[in-house]
């Protein structure tokens, strides 16, 4: 295909590369494990459990955030910031929180009786990367992640003791590819299609779990894929990297 081997975190993105993940000793290392646990004894860190932020406190004149309101155990509380407030509530809750705090489309906020601090199109750039699977091939080599073969003493001990082996796989994804269709300029290094190459398929667990995650009904699975149950397979998942459609998040 003419594509080069790349580093997913490198300067150029067009090409094929090994999958990378945030891993420690063969297991997924979450943000909490990587950062919060080592810092949990610090005097300047306090984590409030069961606390739900409902509003960012913003000075209407300077438009500077100075704290947050949150609910904990049914009680409305406030905490003030000495330096800054960092909004990190995710793709859906971040725009929701901003709008509840007075930052968003004026007309929409006014409909909910929210005083407008800044008229901005918050929530108007919602997008998703649509993907399609089903490109599955039978292979002759015994290289697939088949559930019934993975559950054995050797692989379990290899994972538990050394953090190694097939149980450390990123869901079976071996390689990623960022490639161009006829709608993308190859010279721009801005690919529009992603390819996930998986050492397995929807059938690698005999149709018990994976196909349900992908929304495939029992009838459809049995009609199309039942013959591939627990077979050595290789699959591709194609993903749209630059969708043109945009959604809107509203209160």
From TrEMBL:
GO molecular function, one term: oxidoreductase activity, acting on CH-OH group of donors
Pfam families recorded: GMC_oxred_N
Domain Glucose-methanol-choline oxidoreductase N-terminal: 90-104
PANTHER family membership: GLUCOSE DEHYDROGENASE [FAD, QUINONE]-LIKE PROTEIN, GLUCOSE-METHANOL-CHOLINE GMC OXIDOREDUCTASE
Assigned protein family: Belongs to the GMC oxidoreductase family.
Designated name of the protein: Glucose-methanol-choline oxidoreductase N-terminal domain-containing protein
């Amino acid at each position: 295909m003419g594509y080069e081997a790349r580093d997913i975190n490198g300067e150029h993105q067009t090409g094929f590369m090994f999958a990378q993940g945030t891993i420690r000793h063969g297991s997924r290392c979450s943000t909490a494990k990587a950062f919060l646990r080592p810092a949990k004894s610090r005097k300047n860190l306090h984590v409030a459990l069961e606390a739900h932020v409902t509003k960012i406190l913003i000075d209407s004149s300077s438009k500077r955030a100075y704290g947050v309101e949150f609910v904990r155990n049914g009680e409305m509380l406030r905490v003030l910031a000495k330096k800054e407030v960092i909004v990190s509530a995710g793709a859906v809750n971040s725009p929701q929180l901003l709008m509840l705090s007075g930052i968003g489309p004026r007309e929409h906020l006014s409909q909910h009786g929210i005083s407008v601090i800044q008229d901005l199109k918050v929530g108007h750039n919602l997008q998703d990367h649509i993907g399609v699977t089903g490109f599955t091939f039978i292979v002759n080599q015994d290289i697939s992640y088949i559930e019934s073969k993975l559950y054995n003493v050797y692989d379990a001990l290899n994972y538990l003791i050394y953090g190694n082996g097939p149980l450390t796989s990123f869901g079976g994804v071996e390689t990623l590819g960022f490639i161009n269709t006829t709608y993308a300029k190859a010279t721009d290094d801005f690919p529009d299609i992603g390819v996930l190459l998986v050492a397995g398929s929807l059938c690698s667990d005999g149709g018990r779990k994976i196909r349900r995650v992908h929304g495939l009904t029992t009838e459809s699975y049995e009609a199309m894929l039942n013959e591939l149950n627990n077979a050595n397979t290789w699959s591709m998942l194609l993903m749209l990297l630059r969708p043109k459609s945009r959604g809107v998040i509203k209160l």
